[in-house]
Design goal:
The complex is a heterodimer of chains A (136) and B (134). By secondary structure, chain A is an alpha+beta fold. Chain A contains four helices and five strands, in the order E-H-H-E-E-H-H-E-E. The radius of gyration of chain A is 14 Å and the shape is globular. A five-stranded mixed β-sheet of chain B has the order 1-2-3-4-5, with helices on both faces. Chain B is globular. Classes of the chains: A alpha+beta (136), B alpha/beta (134). At the A-B interface, helix 1, helix 2 and helix 4 of A face helix 2 and helix 3 of B.
Chain lengths: 136, 134
């Protein structure tokens, strides 16, 4: 997998989500991603950015355009230094939430992207990586 | 603070969301609308989301809340103009917006609202027509 373009943004306030969504849109358009997939990756990004704000008080997101064989895609890496997730399997369950949300965030986001990975250490932070292939 | 304008049209309230939604803005709209229904005794709310390109779980929940709160205040809500990509994304996300009436355009949304209001008032003297999506 090759990274063709890399860019990072701080998500520290709710309003930071808007320029992030716009940047995501620009990148998705640049690789010729269709409207439905664009909407899915931007929505997924929006969910993960909110999670990071709500549970970890913010963090950094790296936006990359990646290439594997003939396929281009977008990779997002959200890193925070928040409290971490004690039970990832539970957090990935539909309808589970420690906050006051619907608990759709992580499982719903996973359905919207092509690849989803989460690493977390209690007390250290969480890293969520998602990939949406152009035709994925 | 940024706000989404709410227009009054007879006994209806009309909201056209023309900007990118973020959490605070959606919450403000929810509060403003509920107050406005109460203040104006509006019987229907029409929310045009044709310019909204992203609705995630939070904003989706706010739309659902608005519909439920309006119903509690004796007003009907119709959401119009959802973009197809947004509809696909919302359902895959797991938020099918059950209980929220929808229509494809403002025109059709108005028809749906008027009909709902008429039905509620028991004015059954208008002819039935079922050729719209309600």
């Amino acid at each position: 997998m090759i990274s063709l373009d890399k860019d990072s943004m701080n998500i520290l306030r709710e309003i930071d989500v808007i320029p992030f969504r716009n940047r995501l849109k620009e990148n998705a358009t640049k690789i010729g991603m269709g409207l439905v997939n664009q909407t899915k990756i931007i929505t997924a990004g929006s969910e993960l950015a909110r999670n990071m704000l709500k549970y970890a008080g913010g963090g950094i997101v790296v936006i990359e355009i990646i290439n594997k064989g003939r396929e281009n895609g977008i990779r997002l890496t959200f890193s925070d230094k928040g409290p971490g997730i004690a039970d990832i399997a539970l957090a990935m369950k539909d309808g589970y939430s420690t906050g006051k949300s619907l608990g759709l965030g992580l499982p719903g986001t996973k359905r919207l992207v092509s690849e989803f990975a989460i690493e977390s250490e209690v007390g250290k932070g969480t890293i969520v990586t998602v990939i949406k292939w152009k035709n994925g | 603070m940024e706000r989404i304008p709410i227009l009054r049209l007879g006994n209806l309230l009309l909201v056209t969301i023309q900007v990118d939604l973020y959490d605070k803005l959606a919450e403000t709209l929810e509060a403003d609308l509920v107050q406005m229904i109460n203040k104006t005794n509006a019987q229907g709310v029409l929310i045009d989301i044709s310019a909204v390109s992203i609705i995630d779980s939070f904003m989706g929940r706010i739309i659902g809340n608005i519909a439920t709160m309006s119903r509690v205040l004796d007003a009907e809500t119709v959401v119009v103009g959802m973009q197809p990509a947004v509809a696909i994304t919302l359902v895959e996300l797991g938020l099918p917006l059950k209980g929220v009436a929808s229509a494809l355009s403002v025109d059709k949304g108005m028809e749906v609202l008027k009909k709902k209001i008429q039905q509620k008032e028991g004015l059954k003297d208008t002819p039935e027509d079922n050729d719209f999506i309600g």
